[in-house]
C-alpha cells in the first residue's frame, strides 16, 4: 500500500492520548459505505477505530479493492531477516541457470498416499511400513483405481523419465527441493548428475541445526527465485511457490500430471512411445502455469 496509505508503527502524541471514535462496519453491505459512513467520521474526528466486516463477501469488492487486498498480501509475505540472509546465501551457491525440482517421495508421504510400490528397495519398503501405522495401502483393483485417479506420488525414477520426455538436458543444473528421508533418489541422480541439495551446499553445522519448517522455507525462497520450477505434487508448498512466481512474472512453472502418467503406463506404453505421449500430455501447460494465484492480482491495477 506504499504510496497510497501512510502506515506508522506508533500514533503521534496528540492522537495517542485520545480514544478513537468507533465506526461499526460489521453490517455494511455496499461498496460505497466507506464514502457514506467511514470517510465522514474520519474527516470529522481524525481518529477512528473500524470494526471489521468479516462477513462481507470479497466478490462484492470493486476490482481495484481486490487488487489492493491481493497484492498487499503477496508483497507482505517474506521470511525473517536472518532466514532470508541464509536463503540468499544458499541461492547464490547454486550453479546458474537452474531448475528447482520439488520432489515428494518421503516415507510418510508414500504411507499417507496408501499406494502400492512393489518394485522399491527393501530399505524403502521397510521405511514406508514403519510410517504406515494404521494406513495400509490399497491392494488389487482398488490400488489400480487409486493410482489411475492420480493419488500416487511419482518416484524419482518416474520423475527422471518425464524430465527426459520434455527434452530437459541431462546437464541441467537442478536444485532438489525435498524433505528429509527422500527415497530411491538414485533413480534421478543416475540420469541427471548436476543435482545440488541444501545438505550439499550448507555447512554441516547449519544443516543439522535446522528444523523441518526452516528447511522448507529455504526451499520456498530458492524455488520462487529459480529460472524454472517443476513440482511432482500439488501440495501447499507448490501452490505457494507457483502463485508467488506468477505474481512476480515468472511463468516457467510446471506440475507433472500423476493421473496422466498412471493412465499412460496402464495402457502398456513404454520407451519412446511413452516419452512422446508424456510430452503431448504436458506441452500445453509447459512454461505458462499461474498455479493457484488469485486472478484479481493480475488486473491493470498495479499498486
UniProtKB/TrEMBL annotation:
GO terms for cellular component: cytoplasm; membrane. GO terms for biological process: fucose metabolic process. One of its GO terms (molecular function) is glycosyltransferase activity. It is a single-pass type II membrane protein. InterPro entries: GDP-Fuc_O-FucTrfase (IPR019378). It is found in: Membrane. Keywords: Carbohydrate metabolism, Fucose metabolism, Glycoprotein, Glycosyltransferase, Membrane, Signal-anchor, Transferase, Transmembrane, Transmembrane helix. It comes from the Eukaryota. Pathway: Glycan metabolism. Belongs to the glycosyltransferase GT106 family. This is O-fucosyltransferase family protein.
Amino acid at each position: 500500500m506504499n504510496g497510497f496509505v501512510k502506515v506508522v508503527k506508533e500514533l503521534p502524541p496528540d492522537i495517542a492520548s485520545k480514544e478513537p471514535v468507533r465506526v461499526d462496519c460489521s453490517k455494511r453491505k455496499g461498496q460505497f459505505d466507506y464514502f457514506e459512513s467511514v470517510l465522514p467520521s474520519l474527516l470529522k474526528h481524525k481518529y477512528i477505530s473500524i470494526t471489521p466486516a468479516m462477513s462481507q463477501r470479497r466478490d462484492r469488492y470493486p476490482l481495484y479493492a481486490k487488487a489492493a487486498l491481493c497484492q498487499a498480501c503477496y508483497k507482505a509475505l517474506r521470511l525473517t531477516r536472518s532466514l532470508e540472509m541464509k536463503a540468499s546465501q544458499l541461492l547464490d551457491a547454486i550453479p546458474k541457470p537452474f531448475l528447482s525440482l520439488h520432489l515428494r517421495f518421503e516415507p510418510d508421504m508414500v504411507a499417507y498416499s496408501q499406494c502400492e510400490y512393489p518394485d522399491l528397495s527393501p530399505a524403502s519398503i521397510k521405511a514406508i511400513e514403519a510410517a504406515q501405522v494404521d494406513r495400509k495401502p490399497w491392494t488389487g483393483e482398488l490400488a489400480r483405481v487409486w493410482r489411475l485417479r492420480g493419488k500416487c506420488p511419482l518416484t524419482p525414477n518416474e520423475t527422471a523419465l518425464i524430465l527426459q520426455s520434455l527434452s530437459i538436458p541431462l546437464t541441467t543444473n537442478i536444485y532438489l527441493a525435498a524433505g528429509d528421508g527422500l527415497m530411491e533418489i538414485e533413480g534421478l541422480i543416475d540420469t541427471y548428475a548436476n543435482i545440488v541439495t541444501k545438505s550439499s551446499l550448507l555447512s554441516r553445522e547449519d544443516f543439522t541445526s535446522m528444523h523441518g519448517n526452516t528447511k522448507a522455507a529455504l526451499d520456498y525462497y530458492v524455488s520462487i527465485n529459480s529460472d524454472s520450477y517443476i513440482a511432482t505434487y500439488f501440495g501447499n508448498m507448490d501452490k505457494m511457490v507457483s502463485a508467488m512466481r506468477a505474481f512476480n512474472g515468472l511463468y516457467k512453472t510446471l506440475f507433472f500430471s500423476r493421473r496422466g502418467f498412471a493412465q499412460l503406463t496402464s495402457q502398456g506404453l513404454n520407451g519412446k512411445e511413452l516419452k512422446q505421449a508424456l510430452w503431448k500430455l504436458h506441452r500445453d501447460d509447459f512454461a505458462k502455469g499461474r498455479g493457484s494465484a488469485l486472478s484479481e492480482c493480475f488486473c491493470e491495477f498495479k499498486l
